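Support reply, case 0932

Customer input (verbatim):
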Amino acid sequence: MLRFEHPYYFYLFALIPLLFVLYLLMARWKKRALQRFGDPEIVKTLMPDYSRKRLFYKFIFLLLSFSSLVLALANPQIGSRFEKVERKGIDIMIALDVSNSMLSEDIQPNRIERAKQAVSRLIDNLVNDRIGLVVFAGKSYTQMPITTDYAAARLFLSGINPGMVPTQGTAIGDAIDLCSSSFGESKKSKAIIIISDGENHQDDAVSAAKKAYDHDIRVYTVGIGSPEGAPIPMIINGNNAGYKKDKDGNTIISKMNPDALQEIATAGSGIYVNGNSTNSLQAVMDNIDKLEKSSIDSKVFSEYEDRFQYFLVLSFLLLICEIFIFERKAHWADRIKLFD
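Our regenerated output:
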């Protein structure tokens, strides 16, 4: 396998058109300088050894030398051998609550943004583990299938926002079921992380967590919000249009329910943590890391050998050739007619 250690040096090839322009300007200037001496035919008779072709050949050799030098700077490398390496990891599905209550601002900037910051920090610390994203409110949807592409995970995470699930509510049990099915036939250790304020209004999340654990899937919960709670903003066209009210006209206060989240985590043989810190998921990951990690054998290039020296020598030889091509032949070179 061929690669270049410093490919940014290839930008130097952009100088080649400039060198061509400079060569043409120099050739034009020399031509006009000779014309000022007199009639071109007479000048040609007076300078029988001068050849424009040699000037062009010198330029070509100089250009090839420059190109070879650029390749040497980029340092082409060849993979010398394969080596099997063992990678170990865990499959993790993250289910993120995107119901309207996650807009509450009892933690800054709001619950959903704090949750996304925590997940982003988690992704930064992953090595070899696979990760997938599920969003849920009244229903659950797969935001990103399970993958080791952490850059894609960050991209999908950035697009998550309340309102992307049209059915309102907080169906944690449905989210657990969808996460469980997302693992497929994976033989790895599996974990589900539920990030929510815990206001489960619709289904039996505890039973779903027990069912997941029966299939060797651990369920962890992360609480976002405060027990005191905060009103739920009404966002219309990106602007705050007040707060949600009940049928009696009273402002609805959304409170985090740590007891419900603790019960779900216990049923899924996981742990519950308070997620109001961006570093809160570290405690969950420390617990997940204790699970048995599955091994994957893969082949990688373990060593690369430098090949810059060949191009450096070639550049030097081409430069030597350019030096020994004279615009006017020396007396000792009269018998060598490489170029007319």
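We compared this against your earlier run and they match. Two observations from our side: The first helix runs from residue 15 to 35. The radius of gyration is 35 Å. Please reopen the case if you see a mismatch on your end.
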